Amino acid sequence: MSATLPILCTTACWAPVSYFRAWAAASQGYLEAWEHYSRQTYRNRYLILGANSIIPLTVPVRRATGNDAPIREVEIDYSTPWQRLHFKTLVSAYRNSPFFEYYIDDLQVFYTERFRLLFDYNQQALACMLGLLRLPTDIRLSAAFGQTDGNAFTDLRDAFHPHSRSKDLPSYEQVFSQKLGFQADLSILDLLFNLGPDAAAYLTEKCENF
């Protein structure tokens, strides 16, 4: 992957570490705004580490036009209290992590405020996380399907999937790593809560040299 080229990614909900490694290395980041929704992907799913295993958390959605719904029209479904349940799970998993208390207030809005559209939720969550990591936060949208503002870019729209997590990531101390061993490429929340201010250096320096 060339750091001189922009990247084009799908939208993702609290995306994995490998996703943010790509954003940290790129000259510019674009989100694909013209695709259709796809199930069982990071678009509305993220992975955290609990006391006994990896826990998948899913943001429920409503698709007015079925499985072929344009991604920017997919609405979040609030018929179940998923925000409260996700937040409770995060507290249980990370309350003993070094930096949970430091960052949780910045993230709590995503578990209390109602966002109508999944794309908007993800975009604002991405901007928030890039800000907390002190990485460039200029998020752009594709001009059309598969098109950025320029001619050359690195296409990463199929690069990240919950069933094929990246293994080429250096280890770091996790809350339950002594019990479960290091679990690579979880949600960026895992990296943030465990490494705090060092998370950016992990993405930009340690990953690059690994």
Question: Quick summary of this structure?
Answer:
The chain has about 210 residues and is α/β, with parallel strands linked by helices. The protein has 7 helices and 8 strands; from the N terminus they run βαβββββαααββααα.
Structure description:
It is a single chain. The protein is an alpha/beta fold. It has one domain. 31% of the residues lie in helices and 12% in strands. The protein contains seven helices and eight strands. A four-stranded parallel beta sheet has the order 7-2-1-8, with helices on one face. A two-stranded antiparallel sheet has the order 3-4. A two-stranded antiparallel ribbon has the order 5-6. It is globular, with a radius of gyration of 16 Å. The chain starts with 6 loop residues before the first strand and ends with a helix.
Topology:
Layout (H helix, E strand, L loop, with lengths): L6 E3 L7 H9 L3 E3 L13 E5 L4 E5 L2 E2 L12 E2 L5 H13 L5 H8 L10 H15 L6 E3 L12 E2 L21 H4 L7 H8 L3 H8 L4
Parallel strand pairs: 1-2, 1-8, 2-7
Antiparallel strand pairs: 3-4, 5-6
Characteristic key phrases:
7 helices, 8 strands, four-stranded parallel beta sheet, about 10% strand, about 210 residues
